[in-house]
Structure formats: structure tokens, C-alpha cells
Write a structure and sequence with these properties.
The structure holds two protein chains of two kinds.
Chain A: H1 13-29, H2 34-55, H3 61-77, H4 80-84, H5 88-95, H6 101-105, H7 108-122, H8 129-139, H9 145-151, H10 156-172, H11 183-205, H12 211-229, H13 237-251, H14 276-289, H15 297-310, H16 319-332, H17 336-350, H18 352-360, H19 372-384, H20 388-400, H21 405-417
Chain B: E1 2-9, H1 18-37, E2 41-46, E3 53-55, E4 60-62, E5 73-81, H2 84-91, E6 102-107
Antiparallel strand pairs in B: 1-5, 1-6, 2-5, 3-4
Chain lengths: 420, 113
């Protein structure tokens, strides 16, 4: 998903260094000093830009930025008022000082550790979900408020509110900046997975009109998943399965749109455009996830995605296996959206009318009434069954419920085919 | 061909997002690349903020005064051009104008011995 390397800088270098530095400096200054952390990080990155733009990128740009950040931390320490307000984390670091606790924090293992602490903090169950996602984009992914607002299709004022709510929680409660161990790790890891999954879906399925932003969000979700996977304590069945699931979907990213930006259905996509490297990585993580006895929701979803990714053609897809996987998924994790997807598979096996019956018997069907894919699916099934005027009604209803230009193009195209 | 100096004044937008910084960085690198391809670029150095000022017959050393913000010289290029007009024309592609900065173009004095 990465574009070309630009003049010695990897894609999103500044953004990802911003995320790393914010995590590292939060260990120095404490969660209650996030504003100070942001200011120091911003100053360090600006200094890098001012110098590099004239003299070029140094051979180890990350080390250069760390050196600048470290010096800026020491500058802050010279102001006693700030040094007095530092958190307990810093006190214990300073006691363990050998020879300099700050330098230790910039070691690669410590940087990764700090980022994990930041992930767990952003996804803390005491924070509202909206705040979790906004804060993750800000502190881990290096987005600013304007970029978060654009990515989440909301106003800057809203994003500020969500972040302020989280910062207030950090002041009011004693949320630790750490990675839990043992049993409590499992529960906390679940909420981390949820946030990563939401972030990915925000990019993959939202009505976000900008392809670049969508790709960005998916790329960030995968990056955070990899960060988890690299840590032995966080490398569990769900982490691997979630990664697999995201990689399989990401592999189809570029094949989903026609040249005019309209959405293409799975059966219309040119499979030679699917990213085989991402699919291969998906297969790797799916097999990594298959170590335990139990089967998780993410594993089932990843298994379904793998079946689509590995089928040589739409016709040769193993629909029976996919149906069996959906049945298990729905038993484990009942959801009208999963049932709608299952109905599409039923239609593939037993015909459009069987699919429509399956949709009619969805538990909680009314909750899907304003979901455009319900009506788009019904339209497609009526169209296949030869009931064109019903199909058109459904496609028109679907159009009312989506603001995504690419979805709208698809529905317009479908309306035109449903004329005979 | 004569030599000219570009003096860059004014810094980047202090609240730019990291992604914007990288985009700005790329514009500078692209510009330098073009100057190099046209064999106009000789060298360039950034200047750190701050330093010392030595002044007067008593050579008094002070921490300033330095100009602020837009007046601060952040760095310089030495370039090669046929005329002042060409040097000025080449400077117009500098990305500094997008962040409100300026380029002072000065011919390097040539002394014939």
C-alpha cells in the first residue's frame, strides 16, 4: 500500500515518527502532559523539516529526529516547574538511570514498547469509542485535527471535543500508561482489536469519498496490527486473525473501483488486479492464528475473506464452505449484517428467491432498514429473478441511503441494467 | 556564468501536520533536484536558530538581537546563473513562498586580480 520512497524518506515518515515520538515522550512527561508532549514533538519535526529541506535527508533520519527530540526534552527539564509535574513513570525511569534514562527510551525495543503502551491507553475501555478512534489517529498515527475530521467525516470541533474528553479522563482518573499482564491483558487486548477493526472499516467501508484517505486509514490499521503482533504478549489468535482479515480485504482495494470511480461487485472485479503479496501475507497470518483450539470471530471472518481471495474465479468460489463459515460466525456473534452477507451466499447456492427468503427471516431486519446494502442486495436478487420493477424500486431506495459517490455510481449502473 | 546566493527568510507553518511537513519537504527536494539537473545548484546549508552576535570596538558578545520569525535567515544556497534575472527567475519555484517566506537573491561579488 506504500508509494515510492521520496528522496530518502519513506512514505509517511513524519507522521509515523510523530506517533513514535509522542509515545516515547509520554513516558517522560506523563499522560497528564499530552499537550506538552505534542508541542515538543511538533518542534522536533519542524526542526527536521527546516534543516533537511535545505541540506537533504540525513542517512539515518529517525536517529536525527530522536537526537533533536532528546535535546528538546532536556531543555524542558531545565524549567523546574515542568520537571516537578512529571509523572511517576519518569521517577522510576530516572532511578534506573544508566547512564541516561532518556537515551534508553530511544532504543528500538523501548520505542516499540512505548507505542504499545500508547495503543492500550488510547483503547482504554473507560474512554468513549469515538474518543478512542480520534485519539489513536492523533497520537499513534500522527494525524492532526483537520485530517482526523476529514478521515472520520465529521467537523474539527467534534474531533477536538472527542480528544478533549479523553484528555480530561487522563487528568481525572488514574489510567496508567502501560501494557497490562496476564488475564487483564486479554480483556484489554479485545478492546484494542475492536478499535483497530473499526479503524480499518472506517477506511474500507465508509462513505469517505477520497480513496487516498480510505487507503490511509486501512494502512494505519494494518500497521497497528503489526505492532501488536510483534509483541509476544499481544501475539494471540485474534491479533493474527485480525491482521489476516485486513490484509485479504486490502488486497482487493485497487480492484474495487472501475476507471470512473464506481464501485465494482466482487464478481465484476478483475482478479488479476488483486494484490497477491498481500493475499500471501494474509494466508501467513491466518495460519499463524490457527494454533489454538477455539475459533474466534476474527478467524471466521478471515477464513471467509481467504476463500474469496483464493478462489480462481467468482464461479469457482466454494460457496458451501463459505455458508458453513457464516453459520458458525452468526452462532458465535449474531448480527443482522452477517446474516445479510449470509443471504447473498444462500442466493449463490440456491438461487435469488432463496436469498430473498433468507433476508426476510433475518433476526432484527428492521435495524437494517436504512442500510443501503440491504436494499442494494434485494434489488440485485429481484433483478436476477427477473422482477425488474421491484429491482428498480430497491436500487432507488438504496440510493437514498448512501452518500458515497462510488456506491451511487454502482447503483445508477444497476438501475440501468434493471430495465428489461 | 556568475554565482548568486539565495538567502531564505521565514520558517515553515508551525502548526503544519506531519503529513503536510512531508509534502513540503518533497517540494523542496524536487526543486533542488531540478536546480541540480540544470547544473545551477552549487551548495546549500541550513542555519540553526540562535547563536551569538559580536559587536563594537570592544567586541561585545551577546545572544542577540536576532530578527524574529519572518526575518530570520534559515539557510542559504549558492547557485550558478547567467544573470541576476535568471537567478531571480529560478528562485520563483522555491516552495518557501507557500509558507509565507521570502528569498533574497544576491550576486556574489567578483573581484578580478
Amino acid at each position: 500500500m506504500s508509494d515510492a520512497v521520496v528522496h530518502g524518506l519513506v512514505d509517511h515518515f513524519f507522521r509515523h515518527e510523530s506517533g513514535r515520538l509522542q509515545a516515547v515522550l509520554t513516558r517522560v512527561f506523563g499522560l497528564h502532559n499530552l499537550e506538552l508532549v505534542e508541542d515538543v514533538v511538533q518542534a522536533a519535526l519542524l526542526q527536521a523539516l527546516e534543516s533537511w529541506k535545505i541540506q537533504g535527508v540525513p542517512s539515518d533520519p529517525a536517529a536525527w529526529v530522536y537526537r533533536v527530540a532528546r535535546n528538546k526534552v532536556l531543555d524542558v527539564f531545565r524549567h523546574q516547574t515542568v520537571a516537578d509535574r512529571l509523572g511517576p513513570e519518569w521517577a522510576s525511569l530516572r532511578e534506573a538511570a544508566e547512564p541516561n534514562p532518556i537515551d534508553r527510551l530511544f532504543l528500538p525495543t523501548e520505542v516499540a514498547d512505548s507505542q504499545l503502551r500508547m495503543i492500550f491507553t488510547c483503547c482504554h475501555p473507560e474512554l468513549p469509542e469515538e474518543s478512542q478512534i480520534a485519539l489513536t489517529l492523533k497520537t499513534l498515527c500522527g494525524f492532526n485535527v483537520e485530517e482526523i475530521a476529514r478521515a472520520l467525516l465529521t467537523s474539527e470541533a467534534n474531533v477536538k471535543k472527542r480528544i478533549a474528553r479523553a484528555k480530561r479522563k487522563f487528568l481525572e482518573t488514574t489510567i496508567e500508561f502501560e501494557v497490562h499482564a496476564g488475564e487483564s491483558l486479554k480483556a484489554r487486548l479485545d478492546s484494542v482489536h475492536t478499535v483497530i477493526y473499526l479503524l480499518f472499516n472506517e477506511g474500507y467501508s465508509s462513505s469517505q469519498p477520497y480513496e487516498l484517505i480510505r487507503k490511509d486509514l486501512c494502512g494505519e490499521a494494518i500497521r497497528l496490527g503489526l505492532l501488536l503482533f510483534d509483541h509476544p504478549a499481544c501475539r494471540n489468535v485474534d491479533t493474527a486473525a485480525l491482521l489476516a482479515l485486513m490484509l485479504f480485504h486490502a488486497a482487493r482495494f485497487d480492484a474495487r473501483l472501475d476507471p470512473d470511480g464506481g464501485m465494482l461487485l466482487l464478481e465484476e472485479q478483475d482478479r488479476s488486479k488483486w494484490d497477491q503479496e498481500l493475499i500471501a501475507r494474509g494466508v501467513y497470518y491466518l495460519s499463524e492464528s490457527a494454533s489454538g483450539q477455539e475459533i474466534s470471530r476474527y478467524q471466521l471472518e478471515a477464513a471467509i475473506a481467504s476463500q474469496h481471495s483464493l478462489a480462481p474465479s467468482f464461479r469457482e468460489t466454494d460457496w458451501d464452505l463459505i455458508l458453513a463459515l457464516y453459520n458458525r460466525l452468526i452462532r458465535m456473534c449474531p448480527s443482522p449484517v452477517h446474516e445479510l452477507n449470509r443471504a447473498i451466499v444462500v442466493a449463490q447456492i440456491s438461487g435469488p428467491d432463496a436469498g430473498i427468503d433468507a433476508i426476510r427471516s433475518i433476526d432484527g431486519l428492521p435495524t437494517l432498514q436504512d442500510y443501503h446494502l440491504l436494499h442494494a442486495t434485494l434489488g440485485e436478487l429481484h433483478h436476477r429473478a427477473g422482477r425488474q420493477s421491484e429491482a428498480r424500486n430497491c436500487f432507488n431506495t438504496a440510493l437514498q441511503y448512501t452518500s458515497s459517490p462510488s456506491e451511487q455510481r454502482l447503483l445508477q449502473r444497476k438501475l440501468q441494467t434493471a430495465t428489461l | 556564468m556568475s554565482n548568486f546566493m539565495y538567502l531564505f527568510r521565514g520558517g515553515e507553518n508551525p502548526s503544519a501536520s506531519p503529513d503536510k511537513m512531508q509534502a513540503q519537504m518533497k517540494k523542496w527536494m524536487d526543486w533542488i533536484q531540478r536546480l541540480k539537473e540544470q547544473e545551477k545548484y552549487i551548495s546549500g546549508e541550513p542555519l540553526q536558530p540562535g547563536g551569538k552576535v559580536v559587536s563594537g570596538a570592544k567586541k561585545i558578545i551577546t545572544d542577540g538581537p536576532f530578527a524574529e520569525g519572518k526575518e530570520v535567515v534559515g539557510g542559504f544556497f549558492l547557485i550558478r546563473a547567467a544573470s541576476l534575472d535568471e537567478a531571480v527567475a529560478l528562485s520563483k519555484d522555491c516552495p518557501i513562498f507557500e509558507s509565507g517566506g521570502s528569498v533574497e537573491v544576491r550576486p556574489v561579488q567578483i573581484i578580478n586580480h
